[in-house]
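Chain X:
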Amino acid sequence: MPRTTPGSAPEPAPSVAELEAQERALVFRRFTHDDAWALGSLLVGLARARQAPVAIDIHRAGQQLFHAALPGSTPDNDAWIARKRRVVERYGASSYLVGTRFRAKGTTFEDSSRLDPDTYAAHGGSFPIRVEDVGVVGAVTVSGLPQLQDHRFVVAALEQFLKV
């Protein structure tokens, strides 16, 4: 997971095109309960190795298949997970991509979506679980890091899991 150090420039945010390319590349052939457990376990292992204070959640078709709260995470992380996941479910795209699309138009999700910000959050960390020839069936979500790091953490785990 990239980090900035004092005095270094912040990481550039990915473009809409880069984020859309990630979503085209990170597609499952199938997504079972066992896949949710394996992906969730991979995320936990990566988070533990980095001592990341995150909560991790995987939903499919309205059912929570995996959840873990690591040391340093709080109940607020669960609230953020729910809000970010709802964006994925509504838009069929990662929560970070949705927010980036609004910013690219010179506005914000909060100002222009007409959705309740207590219910929806277009902040990085929730990524669609897309199955070939099916579409979006769920979301994998992480909360606890700055939003770009949450997004990149999920993407890196999906790339490893899917061997992309």
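Chain Y:
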Amino acid sequence: MTGREPRNREAERTALRSAADRLLAGTPLRSETGRLTATELLRESGLRRDVAYGDHKDLVEEFQARVRAQNATPSAMRELADKYDVLKERLASVTEDLSKERAITATLRRIVAELDLELRQARDELAQSENVSTLPAPRRRAPRR
């Protein structure tokens, strides 16, 4: 004998209606995508597919009709999708700029390393040279008053 509680069909219907309202308003609690599909309706309501289509098919069809009447995307989700597209383009632009800056930085590091090497070599050659005499540093003149 199983110890299952009897199903509360009215609670199931309420769960489906509430899930439909949340999805259509663009404020889902369980749905990750917020898409207006029967699958997301079931995910949002927490009901199994066989339960929804077996006893509450009318509510699933009502939801699908409301979706068609609303052009398939809730306005809140459309706004989020638009913001996402803008941010995605901005990220691509910033990523491209960063890539260019990294290439420039790498080139500058190589130039600095090469100049440092040349400077060391010149100093070594100067130190080894016996024919070169060091000139005194120029004197500073007193500022005119």
